[in-house]
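Reopening this one. Same input as before:
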Amino acid sequence: ASGEQTMRDPFKETWCRQLSFSSMYQHPVVKATIIPMQYNILGFHRCKRIQRHTICPHFYAPDGMIYRVWSRSDETIRLLKLHPCAIGPDLSVHCDMPLPMKETNIFRNKLITAWWQYNGIVVYPNVVWSTGIPYEKCFDGLPKHSVVAVNSTGIGLDMRARYVWREGYEQMLDILNPIHIIRYGAKQDGERSE
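Same output, byte for byte:
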């Protein structure tokens, strides 16, 4: 049934009719989440039923796994409602991806987050950025003064990736002024410590 639902509405236009969009780039408006993170974080695909009330699922996983939350949205929402909260999705925005693909994934990350919030789920916005996209566009629609999440996995010893991550991180601090940052992955040089 979920496959049929995706075929009927592949671009989630029904979602868009229920959500608000920014005036600048027409990105989905994501609400602030100010509740402190007090749960264990675990990949959505690894969550067990007996743990659901103590787990905040994340979506730092291969895009194929994340695409399931797009194609099986009703099932995902039903499962997320068993958890106290969730971290927004993290579709890839690798530096070497074509620009339209990166822009689409940034948009979809926000659209899914806004849809989950519309359905009553507490979601910590996951902030992503990449090369070739203005920071104002990357962060458009995202809330200021919120608890947010970022992913630093995959950076490793790649100097370019570390530079792009650090520059985007600094811009995020300036533009969104988050009240707390949930980082998934290794701490990076110069990262805010509180």
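So the earlier flakiness isn't reproducible anymore. For the record, The chain is about 35% helix and 10% strand.
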